[in-house]
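Example 3.2
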Amino acid sequence: MALTKEDIINAVAEMSVMDVVELISAMEEKFGVSAAAAVAAGPAADAGAAAEEQTEFDVVLTAAGDKKVNAIKAVRAATGLGLKEAKAIVDGAPATVKEGVSKEDAAALKAALEEAGASVEVK
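Structure, written as tokens:
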């Protein structure tokens, strides 16, 4: 029996963040692709939907700043990721820290990251 897209999406939705990170890494190795390109292309595709009132926001780390360690700590606190994954986000800036968060949560996350010395954009 072949899995449908919906079956796969439901299975991923039930995974922990760490399991999803491991799955993405395994898919990158298996297919020789990078998930970073897909993330960067995602917001551009949604430009038409942005004309309506926006209710979900993406928080993008644009630069780590002078205090890289503080930025990593802030990313870890906000996402629940491990040290290695948080460091990868900070080192890979610009990178999306969180997607689909409310305006209030995005503003709070932006403030926390900027307090840690990082440059942040909310899209």
